[in-house]
Amino acid sequence: MNATESPAHGPAPLKLTVLVLAAGASSRMRGTDKLVETVGGMPLLRRVVLAGIGTGLPVVVALAQDRPERREALQGLSIEPVFACGEMSDSLRAGLGRIDPTHAVLLLLADMPEIECQDLCKMISAYSLAPEFIYRATNDMGHDGHPVIFPAWARPALMGIIGDTGAKAVLKAHAHSIRHVPLPGLRATTDLDTPEDWAKWRKAQATGGHN
User: Which of 12, 86, 109, 120 has its CA 20 to 30 A from that of 165?
Assistant: First the structure.
């Protein structure tokens, strides 16, 4: 059974959309693009978006206009692309502008190489039981990470974010409404921003490192 099914009535009409933020500048990679680094035999961005598609939910991807290689990585996939500037607040507003305002949003960062479809489904299942809460993934040590599911009531706050700090202020302001969803290993907190990060992670993967 997938995350949107009900045993008595078949597919449940969840008002939920996946928003993948993939418009960042990748500036700390010193000339390369982390979102097209190969993970599991494909570009990282394609892998992350496929995880979103695997949930059966609609997927919107916020992309940078000046990164054609990212668009190429998503060829053939059933997504709704939207173009944004590099700042996370711009990506959020652009993405939310393409999503039904009555929908909750599963906010998925594109630079997380260990996130699996099953992780998203676990979060969606938790949300479906009590959709009034915010759901935030944690790693196996309880540290806050991503993805995050924001109910529709959080949309005005998300649309009001300024700059490149993401949704931290919204999460802080509504800490009492957050429910945590533990994911295996360090999946919820592994993001790779520099060539050194990638080298260290690949070495750990090659030697059976924790994930």
Answer: 120
